[in-house]
C-alpha cells in the first residue's frame, strides 16, 4: 500500500471576485432603485453590500455606496408613502 501526499491546492480567488461582484451589483441596484422598484431593490442592495463587506471585498467604496443608496431607496419610499399614502409611484 502506497501512501501519497495530498495534492496541494492553490487558494481560490473566486470568493474575492464574488465579493467584488456583489459590491458592484449593490451599487448598481441601489442606483436603479432610486428610480424604480425601490421597495425591492433597496433591501437587495443593502444585503449585497453587507455580504460584500463581510467577505472582504477590495471594492469597499462601491459596497458602501451601495449600502447608502439602498438606505436612500428606503427613505425615498418612506417619503412617498407619507406624501401619497400609497406605496406606488404617481406621476
Helical amount among residues, as a percent range? 55-70%
Largest sheet: none
Number of beta strands: 0
Number of helices: 3
Order of helices and strands: HHH
Unreliable stretches: none
Q: Based on CA inertia axes, which overall geometry fits? A: elongated
**What portion of residues belong to β-strands?**
under 5%
| SS-based class | mainly alpha
Radius of gyration from the CA trace? 19 Å
- What is the average of the pLDDT values? 85
Distance N to C terminus: 78 Å
Short précis:
The protein has 91 residues and is mainly α. The protein has helices spanning 14-33, 38-55, 60-84.
Structure write-up:
The chain has 3 helices and no strands. It is mainly α and 91 residues long. The mean pLDDT is 85.
